Every structure is written in structure tokens, then in C-alpha cells.
Amino acid sequence: MNDPRPQRYDLIVFDWDGTLFDSTALIVQAIQGAAADLGLPVPPRERAAHVIGLGLYEALAIATPELPRERYAEMGQAYRKHYFAQHEALCLFGGVEDLLQALKARHHWLAIATGKSRSGLDEALRHVALHGVFDASRTADETQSKPHPLMLEQLMREFAVEPERTLMIGDTTHDLQLARNAGCAALGVSYGAHDPEHFEAFEPVHIAHSVPDLHDWLLKHA
Predict the structure, then answer these.
(1) What Cα–Cα distance (Å) separates residue 78 from each residue in 55, 56, 81, 110?
(2) Would you state the pLDDT for residue 132?
(3) Interval 22-56: pLDDT, tens
(4) 122 classed as catalytic
(5) What is the β-pairing status of strands 136-139 and 11-14?
């Protein structure tokens, strides 16, 4: 009889945007649209995509460096206007639901670590009917933003899992740096916000080029 316990990782932590949720293009457009609304220089796609995964203040400092801090709330409102005007059309990447169910059947704990706010993540989970699939989550407005290790440290404490039994999966260097800072293994996905040529410096255990690739690697090695 096959042993259903995880082989290598008890806790698997996923980033959300660009890793499970196909939202990168809309986030970039919303950042650019909000900057235009506020009369700011519109950040190029690469810079707007680079900040995906960070908390709001950290993201705005990079995407719109001309914006004074006292106008961050105004920028946040403009961003949400553009994002929520189209977010109902967003969906999970194909194969994500099957992947999550397969991992749950192997008795991994599943968690999310995201730069979204708590309300934003809860709305996204409601939208794709994934409430109850994840055992825990952390958002940027309730802990430190990536790549500070606190998100992962809190999740590991919650499940009493050591760093060597924890895997962080994400589409940005922020995710891979987060894992390194927390002493955990990292896996990069190349189909999200960041160019995967920058991943190798963080020594990921694997770079997945599609959800089927991610599915196959996790079921074989995780």
C-alpha cells in the first residue's frame, strides 16, 4: 500500500497572483491606469510587473516613485477602481484545482503567502470558489511584506513545521527571496510576472514552465 504522507515537504505555500491566479496582466494595467489618473508618469510594463507580490507601500515606492507618501491612499483607490472593473473575468490557471486536490490527497498542508490585502485575497478565493481548500494564509496588510520572512515564519509556527519541510512556490524573485530569508526551499514558475532568468540566483529546486509541469514535479518530488 502506498504511503500517503508527504515525501519531502509537509507545508507547501503558494503565492497567489501569477502563480495560481491568472491576474498579472490586469494588475499591470491597473497600476498603469491609476498612475495616469493621478497625472503621474505611467510606469512601463516591466516595472509595474516587478512590484507584483509586494505590499501596497513597497509596490508604490517602486512603481510610482514620484508619488508622495501622503497620496498613497489615493493611488490605492485608483488602482482598485481599475482592477475591480475587470476582475470578474479573471480565473485560475488551467489545472490549478486538480493540482491542489492532488496535494491535499497526499496530506500536505497548503497555504498562501501573498502581497494582496486580506479583503482582496478573500474576495479572490470567493470568486474562484477555493475557500476551505487552503489550511492557512497570510496577506501583506496583516504581517510584513515580502521578502521579509515573517509570512513564512508565521505559517511554519502555525503548523509546527521546520524550514526544511516547507516549500514556497511563486512567480517572482520576491517569493524566492522570501523563501531564502526564511530558510525554506523555493520553486519558481516562469509563466507569471517575473522573467525566470532571474530565478537561478536563488537556487530554486525547480522552475516550472506550466501548471502541468508544476503538477508533475510536485507529485514526484514533494
Answers:
(1) 16, 12, 5, 33
(2) 86
(3) 999 999 999 999 999 999 999 999 999 999 988 88
(4) no
(5) unpaired
Residue 4: its pLDDT value, please?
A: 58
Task: Name the residue with cell 497555504.
Answer: 111
Average pLDDT (81-86) is 91
Among 17, 22, 171, 175, the one annotated catalytic: 17
- C-alpha torsion 173→176→181→185, nearest 10: -170
> Do 166 and 156 meet the contact criterion of CB atoms below 8 Å apart?
yes
Chain center to CA of 120: 12
Q: Is 17 a catalytic residue?
A: yes
72-84 vs 24-37: helix crossing angle, rounded to 10: 130
> Among 126, 100, 106, which Cα is nearest to 14's?
100
Residue 62: pLDDT band by 50, 70, 90 thresholds? very high
Element (H, E) at 212: helix 211-221
Question: pLDDT tens, 139-174?
Answer: 999 999 999 999 999 999 999 999 999 999 999 999
The helix (H) or strand (E) run that includes residue 77 is helix 72-84
Residue reference for cell 470567493: 126
Give the active site residue among 3, 10, 15, 175: 15
